[in-house]
Please model this.
Amino acid sequence: MGSILPFVLRRSMAGRGLLAVMALGVIVAATLLASAPIYARAMADMGLTFVIRDELSDSPGSSIEFPGIALRTAEGEALRAAVEQRIDERWGWFRGRRHGT
Model:
């Protein structure tokens, strides 16, 4: 063991450039591995924001229709007002715009 130790020390000192490159590689790899979950979370949040902002605002997923009801009558106007009130009570914070008014 005593004769092997000086040999190992000499060889490691001769290859200190390679050792430095390997140490730098380990540090870079550890940094990338540590930042991967943060990056994945940020991309997921940005994707959700994009879908909500661009997809849902251009094509609303729900609408209200009054088939077969004359809306220009007193009964139709009362029905429309009741539906508008109910929408405002439940979903007024979410509704961005009204179609057909």
In short: The CA atoms of residues 43 and 73 lie 51 Å apart. The chain has a mean pLDDT of 76.
